[in-house]
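hey so i finaly got around to running the thing on Adenosylmethionine-8-amino-7-oxononanoate aminotransferase from Modicisalibacter ilicicola DSM 19980. pasting the sequence first so u can double check i didnt mess up the copy paste, my clipboard has been acting weird all day
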Amino acid sequence: MNSPVWHPYAHLKTQQRMPKVVGGHGAHFTLENGDTLLDATCSWWCMIHGYRHPRLVEAIRDQAERLCHVMLGGLSHDPAEQLALELVRISPPGLEHVFFSDSGSVGMEVAMKMAVQYHHLLGKPEKHRLLSLMKAYHGDTLGCMAVCDPEEGMHALFADALPRHHFAPAPRAGFEASQEEVQADLDALRRVLERHHREIAALLMEPLLQAAGGLNMTSPHYLRGARALCDEFDVLLIFDEVATGFGRTGRMFAAEHAGVTPDILVLSKGLTGGYLGHAATLATSRVHDAFVGDSALHAFMHGPTFMGNPLACRVALESLAVFEEEDYLARIDLLNRVLRQELLLDTGLRDHPEVADVRVLGATAVVEVKGGAALHGVADFARRHGVWLRPFGRWLYTMPAYITREDEVRRITAVMKDWFR
Ligand SMILES: *Cc1c(COP(=O)(O)O)cnc(C)c1O
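ok and heres what it spat out for the 3d tokens, dont ask me to read them lol
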């Protein structure tokens, strides 16, 4: 019988039967037929501790015995209070208020709504549009789709149904680019702001790593320049660190590479170590305090049913404790060195005629090919070699769990290289 499960991003006519996963341990998961696969993607980048981490499992179990859920409207509880304090402690200085929600997309919706209402409350209701970047991906809900790359993104079909926002070119200068090389990107951003700032509430970006839009790696200078432009034009700066947060770029948050504090920061994916869906939208006191006032309009009208879910908050707290106690940043550094050594220093891959570029940042590596056809069949090839890779478009990438051992990472990179042999 055909399964009634409708799978994400699947082409229904050509999709193959989806293998069932029955369990997992460390960087591997196990299929129904007994095969184990080394997960090179840590399940869409969220399972940073790998599968069945004993401390995370125990945290959920313990919390389940006390309180699985209660509404956050009019009530509070320790896991939410403690997690908010922890997020304020570890995030860039100045972010002091935490709004919880249940997924990255909703966390971004909250951020965008907050930015528009902020300007409204300060007497600038005309600032109600957003400025995003080409190659951006911010989620699949309607509001998020409107700020994803309108051409290469996956939502072009909906263009006429979405609100119109502004877009600046995707930054071209890479992570290691000099200030001078970044200037052209910042000039392009300035031109859009000069023309449209009167109606722009916020600039939003995935700092340093535009992930699902093509793993475009950009420079800390760009973040600093964007911060300065936002201040100049009275535009809020929103960092979508749903993918980059919790170590993926080599620091806890990508913003730290630049010493920049955004006005609003969105976290999800790695927040709970992937063990439950949750998100947090952090704001500075400048943003928060604009909502302190007498009129009914001052309330922020948003409240996802599962915001601050105790199980999710509790496992997020445990995830953070493990991250710090087991010095994950040092592990990420090791993963980075292995990825560089295998994919960059060994130049065989970069010189391959089908390969356009190879990039590594933190615990992320991508092989960009010239045409998507060059990746046709690579997922099956990897699976035959015991590795779970899931390329999209022209990008074959790995974002391993941080607990992935050195020899396991070399297995992943070997499969990536062998595909091109
Ligand atoms: C995954 C992702 C989102 C959307 O998060 P969901 O939890 O899938 O809704 C938003 N922004 C970025 C940068 C992401 O990588």
